[in-house]
């Protein structure tokens, strides 16, 4: 019996130290990501230089599809990586990609591919897709609002016309 208690105590201590060490490493690896503009070709980085990995809170629909939960996950630190991870988490439709992205003061402007618009199927789905996109971008870039277009056009879903920047959705 005493042997089991000692083994359990050692395992608990090992788990605690491992968790603490992982948290320290994670804090050290998170760095501020600069402003990204993918609307122009940026040939200043060599192709062999991979983007630095970082973490973000990704907003995804909850089980009842009436609000959001956050998932903290690692990604490559680019807007393309942020959107791709939202797709992987099923918060955005398959095939959604970034056409262009700009940060100006407290607002981001993003132009997305057609699958984003095609998935707008009802008011609840529209709210979840836009909320996942907007909340994740606002949180990661520490800004106030996001404006978006689809293939250069203002999004008109029949429920809303998205011609103004949108603040965080709850």
Largest sheet: 5 strands, mixed
Helix content: 25-40%
Q: What is the β-strand count?
A: 7
What is the spatial order of strands in the main beta sheet? Answer: 3-4-5-6-7
Account of the protein in words:
The protein has 170 residues and is α+β, with helices and mostly antiparallel strands. It folds into 2 domains: 1-30; 54-162, no CATH class. Helices cover 36% and strands 24% of the residues. It has helices spanning 2-29, 79-88, 114-118, 123-141, and strands spanning 54-61, 68-75, 98-104, 107-112, 145-150, 153-156, 161-162. The strands form 2 sheets. The protein has a 5-stranded mixed beta sheet. A hairpin with a 2-residue loop joins β3 (98-104) and β4 (107-112). The radius of gyration is 20 Å and the shape is globular.
């Amino acid at each position: 019996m005493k042997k089991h208690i000692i083994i359990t105590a050692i395992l608990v201590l090992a788990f605690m130290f491992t968790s603490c060490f992982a948290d320290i490493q994670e804090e050290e690896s998170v760095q501020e990501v600069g402003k990204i503009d993918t609307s122009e070709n940026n040939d200043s980085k060599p192709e062999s230089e991979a983007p630095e990995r970082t973490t973000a809170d990704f907003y995804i629909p909850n089980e009842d599809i009436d609000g959001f939960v956050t998932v903290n996950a690692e990604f490559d630190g680019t807007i393309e990586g942020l959107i791709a991870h939202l797709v992987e988490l099923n918060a955005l439709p398959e095939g959604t990609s970034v056409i262009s992205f700009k940060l100006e003061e407290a607002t981001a402007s993003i132009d997305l591919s057609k699958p984003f618009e095609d998935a707008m199927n009802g008011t609840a789905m529209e709210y979840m897709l836009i909320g996942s996109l907007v909340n994740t971008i606002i949180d990661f870039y520490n800004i106030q609002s996001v404006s978006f277009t689809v293939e250069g056009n203002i999004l008109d879903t029949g429920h809303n016309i998205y011609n103004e920047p949108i603040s965080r959705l709850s």
